[in-house]
Write a structure and sequence with these properties.
Blueprint: H1 3-23, H2 25-44, E1 47-49, E2 52-56, E3 60-69, E4 77-86, H3 88-92, E5 98-112, H4 127-135, H5 141-155, E6 159-171, E7 174-186, E8 189-198, E9 201-212, E10 217-225, E11 235-236, H6 240-244, E12 247-250, E13 252-259, E14 267-281, E15 290-303, E16 307-310, E17 315-318, E18 321-331, E19 335-342, H7 348-354
Parallel strand pairs: 5-6
Antiparallel strand pairs: 1-3, 2-3, 3-4, 4-5, 6-7, 7-8, 8-9, 9-10, 10-13, 11-12, 12-14, 13-14, 14-15, 15-16, 15-17, 16-18, 17-18, 18-19
């Protein structure tokens, strides 16, 4: 048999396989969903069902009325419609890369009872994980974190339209509901408003930021809104008062996080966070509310196979007082922790003017 004839046979076979795959892509997608659903159920006990699953175009999948639940518990997640597009090239390499997501009428509900909840599976450890922990005395922290970040950034789409998404938590008389009326993500940037209702108390937030897979970057800025929707309000952190009796409020907060490529077993994380107009109250901290004008943290963190290190070039700023912290935690037979704080000379006025108001009122 000549080379040309072999070439034709291979070409015809590939074309036939491609055509068959395209014709049966709906059945293949439903089969793949069933396989994944069975694996999830075997590991966590979470079941899933839907009313319709179909393929749109070459790489689009539409799922109607998807629900995730455990027997005997409230439904954990449900959605009216999910439409997503997947990068077909990376899919051939067995990697998931969602390029577009459209989500309508979705709800994520956490319900906690006296002894059980509909999210108990999050705390369970499978027998496979127990065996892995038993057999291995060390964990490659940088490899684990690098894989988790890569997976997260691949799953997060570069473009999305999310409408009427609700997250709620209920436990006894306590209830918290977080609603995202509309979220737009395009060209790796997103913007949205968030409405929260905690035991009848309403608050509104404005959120914008960046999700960039290529740069491995995640950033966000959150500001409070007044009753008119202007970015001049304050917002509180929900759940803290219910769980720990603490009250924390902000004018705004922001963070920017970038992960480099893992080289030589080391992953470098660079980032910053900024908090303004902070107020904190907890009876174990102070009898009065503690106020802080601003706090900023710029950091460089190195994660190795058996250590985590906060580089000494990192800077922590409280009001007008800045210092360079250093911290290294290394895992051997035991954890070895090294810490230091470097601060250039400063006058007493700078120190006392930077201390949070209300923190030392008991000494007055």
């Amino acid at each position: 048999m000549t080379f040309k004839r072999w070439h034709k046979i291979v070409l015809i076979s590939l074309i036939s396989l491609l055509v068959t795959t395209l014709l049966l892509r709906g059945a293949i997608a439903r089969l793949a969903f069933s396989i994944v659903a069975e694996r999830v159920e075997s590991r966590s006990g979470v079941k899933s069902n839907y009313s319709k699953l179909k393929v749109r175009g070459i790489n689009g999948i539409e799922i109607s009325n998807l629900a995730l639940y455990s027997d005997g518990h409230d439904t954990l997640f449900k959605s009216g419609q999910i439409y997503l597009r997947i990068n077909p090239v990376k899919l051939l390499l067995f990697k998931t890369d969602i390029t577009y997501l459209e989500l309508k009428g979705a709800a994520l509900t956490f319900v906690k009872g006296d002894s059980t909840s509909n999210f108990d599976f999050l705390y369970r450890r499978s027998a496979a994980n127990d065996t892995l922990v038993t057999r291995s005395n060390s964990v490659a922290y940088s490899a684990t974190l690098d894989k988790a970040l890569s997976l997260l950034l691949r799953i997060l789409p570069s473009e999305a339209n999310i409408d009427d998404f609700k997250i709620s938590y209920r436990r006894g008389e306590y209830s918290l509901e977080i609603t995202i009326p509309s979220l737009k993500l395009k060209d790796d940037t997103y913007t949205t408003e968030i409405e929260t209702v905690e035991n009848g108390k309403h608050e509104r937030l404005k959120v914008n930021g960046i999700l960039n897979d290529d740069e491995r970057r995640i950033s966000s800025k959150i500001v409070g809104c007044d009753e008119s929707g202007n970015s001049e309000g304050r917002f509180s952190v929900p759940f803290l008062d219910f769980r720990w009796g603490a009250s924390v409020m902000f004018d705004s907060l922001a963070f920017d996080f970038t992960a480099g490529q893992r080289r030589g077993g080391v992953l470098i994380l660079n980032g910053s966070s900024l908090f303004s107009g902070i107020s904190l109250f907890h009876k174990r901290v102070s009898l009065d509310t503690v106020y802080l004008k601003k706090a900023q943290f710029e950091y460089k963190t190195l994660v190795g196979n058996n250590f985590i290190e906060l580089d000494s070039t990192s800077t922590a700023t409280v009001n007008e007082l800045a210092a360079n912290p250093y911290l290294r935690a290394q895992k051997g037979e035991k954890w070895i922790v090294t810490a230091s704080l470097n601060k250039e000379d400063f006058d007493s006025d700078q120190l006392f003017s930077s201390l949070p108001k209300g923190l030392f009122s008991i000494l007055a």
